[in-house]
């Protein structure tokens, strides 16, 4: 599946992304705001492993973000299960050279629209570390609502921090006319 936006293409990951992925993702400033399963340092082998994982059939959707023919980052939508099966978690990152261009916001809006309209979900949520103000702004600009603060939920580099829980629900889309 591919989503084309004016400044961005959301597309499947490919083996041709390996070098750029390893270079962009090997950044402490990105890793500090993501779960520990996102490795640091980020190696060529990590990039190969991620691309192999993201290329297999699964419930989650993983997109490479491309702008001007270059890999810029990634975004994923991971549907939940059991009695939370109408919900998915969205996660995203951008390489440092692509920060502050509105690309993350555009990607979040597009994937949220897909999930809530095309994917039949009722809710898309994202947990953001409280120190990651840029990501909180992305979600706010994408129409997400801050639902709460999960106190002392994460540990990153020995630092205990809060998680801000944001969500967008299908009714928000109907109220606004679109996601």
From TrEMBL:
Record protein name field: GNAT family N-acetyltransferase
Classification via SUPFAM superfamilies: Acyl-CoA N-acyltransferases (Nat)
Residue span(s) of domain N-acetyltransferase: 8-170
Organism: Pendulispora albinea
């Amino acid at each position: 599946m591919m989503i084309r936006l004016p400044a961005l293409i959301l597309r499947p990951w490919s083996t041709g992304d390996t070098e750029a992925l390893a270079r962009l993702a090997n950044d402490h400033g990105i890793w500090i705001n993501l779960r520990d399963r996102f490795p640091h340092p980020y190696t060529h082998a990590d990039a190969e492993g991620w691309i192999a994982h993201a290329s297999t059939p699964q419930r989650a959707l993983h997109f490479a973000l491309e702008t001007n023919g270059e890999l810029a980052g990634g975004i994923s939508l991971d549907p939940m299960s059991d009695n939370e099966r109408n919900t998915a978690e969205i996660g995203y990152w951008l390489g440092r050279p692509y920060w502050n261009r509105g690309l993350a916001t555009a990607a979040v809006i597009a994937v949220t629209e897909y999930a809530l309209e095309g994917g039949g979900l009722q809710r898309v949520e994202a947990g953001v570390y409280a120190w990651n103000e840029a990501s909180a702004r992305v979600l706010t600009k994408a129409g997400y609502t801050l639902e709460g603060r999960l106190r002392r939920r994460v540990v990153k580099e020995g630092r205990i921090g809060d998680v801000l829980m944001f969500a967008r629900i299908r009714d928000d889309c109907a109220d606004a006319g679109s996601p």
